[in-house]
Amino acid sequence: MQFEQKRYVVTLAPSKYVLSYLIVVHCIMAVTIALLFPLNLTILLVSVVLMHLLFELKRFGWLGSSQTIQRVELTLTGDVLAYDQQQHKKVYRLTRSYACRWFIILTLSSTNTRLKTQLFICNDSVDKPLFRKLLVCLVEPKLYQQ
After folding, report:
1. From CA 74, how far away is CA 137, in angstroms rounded?
2. Do the beta carbons of residue 95 and residue 103 sit within 8 Å?
């Protein structure tokens, strides 16, 4: 597979908005559990909520997961090259996207398997001009190939 010249190179940083959201939601869950259940069940369920919070923080790159996507390159043909912390390259096809002024969700399908993954790009995880350019770029229909 030949890759044409790179159109956009995006270096992703962990989003502070996502961090705030995760902490607030998990705190609300813990308080709700504490108010509804007896003490022994509360301890068990709150520990499950905290483990889930740690899992999500690792998944979104706040706890240094080596598999979190750190850099994305979007080519003219809709190919997406994703790099993790150890610079392992994964090749995806851009199949669909959702974009608004706060975040972008890219639905990517693997080129060698049928697996799909979604990449969440928040507006504070990249610089503002690049985020605006990505919003404009994702309007082009020729990027989306099945």
Report:
1. 10
2. no
